Amino acid sequence: MKKTLVRALKRFVAAGAVVLAAVSLQPTSASAAPAPVVGGTRAAQGEFPWMVRLSMGCGGSLLTQQIVLTAAHCVNGSGNNTSITATAGVVDLQSSSAIKVRSTKVLQAPGYNGTGKDWALIKLAQPINLPTLDIATTTAYNSGTFTIAGWGANREGGSQQRYLLKAQVPFVSDATCRQAYSELVPAEELCAGYTSGGTDTCQGDSGGPMFRRDANGAWIQVGIVSWGYGCARPNYPGVYTEVSTFASAIKSAAATL
């Protein structure tokens, strides 16, 4: 989920998907949102092949072809777990071409207690033959404009979407973000959104990636949808797990699954 109230109600909904919203939550960034991104725009088939929809109502990305990176608040602890189904390979969740694979294990970030450290790994029963999304290992890409994507609600309090939506949001400094969220953990979290609101991730988008192009033009993941007050509200940006902070731990944990 995406926190929305109490450390905000994380952006995860048992039915949700990624919002990209727009009409609801955040932003404390700079100007006004580029005109019509309310609800985001539909992604093209194959545009973000590493996007994953998880059956508990969260998003995720393919860290490897057999491991999904998502948010810690989307799972309940670590250990063997065959209850989660990952859907991949499509933008339309109702497509007959959808690839569906069950989970076998879950690893929640060590020390996760609801504040910061919001990442988790889900091992799948078998590899999914699709491109993976590299994660940032330094803070070099923690600025500029980011892309968010998901099947979550397209408005605060809305329902999940059938089609994958996408939008862009600008970086928000820690200093500005803390004006909205005193509980922000700057060393572990990254904020993005427009001061005017209008574009954001929302309930059902939790665990999905926030990404941008690296120096070579390849997509790289810099954040994980974590929490925020509502969705796309003015002066309340989205809060994302800062992937570079945990890159080493994520890779080490993946090697143990």
From TrEMBL:
Q: Where is the signal peptide?
A: 1-32
Q: Ranges for the Peptidase S1 domain?
A: 37-255
Q: Name one GO biological process term.
A: proteolysis
The record's listing under InterPro entries reads: Peptidase_S1_PA, Peptidase_S1_PA_chymotrypsin, Peptidase_S1A, Trypsin_dom, TRYPSIN_HIS, TRYPSIN_SER
The name of this protein is: Trypsin
- Report whether Signal shows up as a keyword of the record: yes
Q: Which domain of life does the UniProt lineage start with?
A: Bacteria
Q: Which UniProt keywords apply?
A: Disulfide bond, Hydrolase, Protease, Serine protease, Signal
Give the GO molecular function terms: serine-type endopeptidase activity
Pfam families on file: Trypsin (PF00089)
